Amino acid sequence: MKKTMNLLKTNLHYVVLFLIYVITIIFFARLNSIFGDATGVSLSMIILFPILIFGIALTMPKIKEALKISDKTSILVALISIGVLLAISVVFIIINPHNFIAYLLPAALLPIAIYILLKNVLCKCVYKNIGSITLAVILAVSFGFIGIVSPSTLAEGTEIIEKSGYTDVKYVLPMGENLYTAINADYEKLGFDSYDSGMGFYIFNGKKNDKEYAIYIEVTSGKIAIIQNFAEHEKAVILNSYTPDAE
After folding, report:
1. How many CA atoms are closer than 13 Å to the CA of 69, on its beta-carbon side?
2. Which helix (H) or strand (E) holds 180?
3. Greater confidence, 126 or 81?
4. Nearest 5°: CA angle at 11, between 43 and 74?
5. pTM (two decimals)
6. Most C-beta atoms within 10 A of its C-beta, which of 25, 116, 167, 226?
7. Other beta carbons within 10 Å of 222
8. What is the pLDDT of residues 48-64, one digit of tens each?
């Protein structure tokens, strides 16, 4: 028993990392069930990212030794790579402030960059728990993003459609901004006063007057559009500006 306690105490940072890892997976699984994958973050991405980073951390020393790369060179390459990815994230945020993944990338990379730069001056606690800190930052940014943007949920989307007189409402899939513009490049002629796709669109099927419709809902704004022929994706019009907060 004493040996087990000592082992746990010695490896407590691994226990904390595992618990936060599990919490992160549960959180994003719940997020995807609420928003129907509209966040663009797949559960497999969340599961594999920490494993990938851990794998890189384990293999880098062997790679450095095999290629005879100096510590300074490897650090420089790592920081340049992180810098490029952060710059790309900033560009995506400027293009679309509602791009969820663009916020998660800096949340994951900044703690790693700080770790690389300040590895020799970090206190022992921070040094050991950098993985847990990274996942905690990702969770904090995710909570902040969802809280500030307050995107419409699948349940709210269903309620919006049913209040508009549709029955047998079924969620089909989320659709990103690029796919939508590819299908409806001339969106202004389709009845949109302004194009505010944000996090993309939910697509539902619904029936009204014995006819079946494909119903698009902008995730961030809650506006809905109807495409009369689901197969053609041609004639879309805004029905109203009802949002989840409206009475």
Report:
1. 15
2. helix 177-183
3. 81
4. 70
5. 0.77
6. 226
7. 20
8. 888 887 777 667 666 66
